[in-house]
Specification:
By secondary structure, the protein is of the alpha+beta class. It is 33% helix and 36% strand.
């Protein structure tokens, strides 16, 4: 996340991504939404666990992100898992697409949040998949840190 737009309210986080992938680089992107989608996001009815980013003609799209349909917007509502265009500068798009093609990486949304100005932003991560042994090492490290915290707390 950049220093120019601080996070004011996190809407959804992708905790699986931090477990399943090595995050090499982070980007911030705007997202094109309909009014009913923003209303649902304000109510916290979204999920990005299975979402990913795809590119098409030098544009990035967020696919498989679930935003619940808003009950008040019956006729002018949205579909819950439609592709949503991401708003990123051309230079960053070229950098991301080059990394995806060259190094076999993937773009995954890490979190969705509101800025202080009320804009919806997506934090994207350029990620590389973990192997099973890497996941085990992550769990082992996490368990050790918990035990270490308990020992230090008990000794007080």
């Amino acid at each position: 996340m950049s220093k120019t737009s601080p996070v004011s309210k996190i809407i959804a986080q992708n905790r699986k991504a931090r477990y399943n992938f090595f995050i090499t680089e982070r980007f911030e992107a705007g997202i094109m939404l309909m009014g009913s989608e923003v209303k649902s996001l304000r109510l916290g009815k979204s999920n990005i666990e299975d979402a990913y980013v795809s590119h098409d003609n030098e544009e990035l799209y967020l696919l498989n992100m679930f935003i619940s349909e808003c009950a008040q917007a019956k006729h002018f509502g949205h579909t819950s898992k439609r592709p949503r265009k991401l708003l990123v500068k051309k230079r960053q798009i070229h950098k991301m697409i080059a990394a995806i093609r060259r190094q076999g990486m993937t773009l995954v949304p890490l979190s969705v949040y509101f800025t202080e100005k009320g804009h919806v932003k997506v934090e994207l991560g350029l990620v590389e998949g973990k192997k099973k042994a890497d996941k085990r090492a992550t769990e082992k490290e996490r368990d050790w840190n918990r035990q270490k915290g308990r020992i230090l707390r008990d000794r007080g």
